[in-house]
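Tutorial, part two.
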Amino acid sequence: MSRSRLCWTAAAVFAGLAAPAAGETAVSSNDHHTVLENGQQVAAKGATPDTVSIIDLAHYPPKIIATVEAPGSVVGPPFAVAVAKDESYAIVTAATRLDPQDASKIVADDRVSVIDLRSTPPKVVQQLTAGAGATSVAISPDGGLALVANRAEGTVSIFAIKDRRLEAAGKLDLGNAKAGPSGVAFLPDGKTALLSRDGDSIVSLLHIEGAKIEIDKRPITTAMRPYSLDVSRDGRLAAVSNMGRNDGDIDSVSLIDTSATPPRTVFTLSVGPSPEGLKLSPDGKLLAVGLQNGSAKAKDSPFFHDHGELLLFAVEGHRLRKLAEAPIGHWSQGIAFSRDGHTILVQNMVERTISVFRWEDGKLVPGTPLKLGGGAAAIRTSWP
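Running the prediction step on this input gives:
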């Protein structure tokens, strides 16, 4: 029996069910090759292959029901996963890998994997390449196009999607190899997208016609190093995390009014150090922010804290109002909401877990964390 079959069987027995209910799946990409040592990212000794975990969110508490090997990476925003609307497949990217010539070193990767979520067990059915440092991935609203931000080369790869498979359709060159394309998200019309660029600290509006993409002449300014990026279901608002210099100072999140002509930043709020995790709730009424809060720094750093923080804000027009906060693990990454918005998952790289919360009666109620074999690096659902 294959390893992936064993993973599926064990998880299914534990979960007590064969598959998640339609429309209730989260997909987590887990980096097994990167660890923290004294605040530095280094190659894991005796690393096992990276994995992808399939999580059933149809019931509470959520459960991991399958695990399949597929390359992934903690480098880049935690949006290196995209899930098709019908949950038939997922796309997972890998920005780094162990150097094939020297396993003590980490080098840029460019692999993109397509995972069939309907097969039993789920399996990788296609693997191809994007560009160096392949990170955030987005699927167009009509399911016909995928974009991948390539951080290490300043490009965006364009893929046509046909019969749940990817076909290379070109690259968008940003004209600056150090632009650091990071978060990418389509607006509901499918003709426009937003691209955060932490290398030159701007957000670009992309105009899309088929597989042809042009960059709007007007850059959108949020704050230093815009990074993770999410768009509301109705497409009228985008949220962006601004990572700053990662040197202990307070950082921020911004809101972009995407319904305005032209789209513009309308609000920026200081939230805390390194707000890498960021996700709007399915109804757009909440914004969850995961602060690393110095938890990934060396323990002798004056900015070290022994845990991150999950912050929950009410989205009120073009403003944010803090509702609650709760401790999370170290070097936290992606955030996902259940479809009803009541369950919140937060990834912890160091602990190799996913923190679980219920949003009930105005409080964040912690549940039992989900345990993973690798560092939780990126997570997505099929719903916004």
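The two ends are 36 Å apart (CA to CA). In part three we will examine how such features are distributed along the chain.
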